[in-house]
Amino acid sequence: MVVEDPAWRGHRGLRAKLLRVAEAAAAAGKLRGELTILLADDARLMALNREFRGKNRPTNVLSFPSARTGYHGDIAIAHGVSAAEAKAAGRRFADHVSHLVVHGVLHLAGYDHETERDARLMEPLEVKILARLGIADPYRAVAP
Predict the structure, then answer these.
(1) Structural domain range at position 28
(2) Over 70: is that where the pLDDT of 32 sits?
(3) The predicted structure's pLDDT at residue 143
(4) What is the full DSSP assignment across 27-57?
(5) Number of domains into which the chain is organized
(6) Is the pTM of this model over 0.90?
């Protein structure tokens, strides 16, 4: 795990939690080996999104699979975008970012959500992994 944006350091216990989340997601996705999680700021995710996806805006999470044996790839998460999404959804920041880690790890495992069929495979697996970690279904609305 690489913490590039100091804003991430203001969340006690978050890095340890995200490591546990990544391990659970990797096990569910049948990944054996290593991966990197970059905890960055919105500007960094915007630059990556522009360079690799041609989209000139920040995003919450990006995944970069690797073809190298034993190394599955990189996941980058933006603090500001993630915090704003968590607040807008009425969710705890740690729970929302945990979901983003699960989502990113599953992308590294080959899961996708570009089509409805793909999403019907990936999203229930995300929900199942998060439930095992005591985190509510991120696809359900939070009661007011």
Answers:
(1) 2-132
(2) yes
(3) 54
(4) HHTT--SEEEEEEE-HHHHHHHHHHHHS--S
(5) 1
(6) yes
Phi then psi dihedrals of residue 2, to 5 deg? -120, 120
Q: Which residues of 105-127 are buried (b: 16+ CB within 10 A; e: fewer)?
A: bbbbbebebeeeeeeeebbebbb
The reply to whether 142 falls in a domain is no
CATH code at position 34 = 3.40.390.30
- pLDDT tens-digit readout, 58-78: 999 999 999 999 999 999 999
Tokens of 18: 């995200």
CA pair distance 115, 113, nearest whole angstrom: 5
Cβ proximity of 44 and 79 under 8 Å: no
Any domain includes 141: no
CA angle 45, 48, 49 (to 5 degrees): 80
Distances in Å between the Cα of 77 and the Cα atoms of 17, 46, 48, 49, 50 are: 15, 11, 11, 11, 15
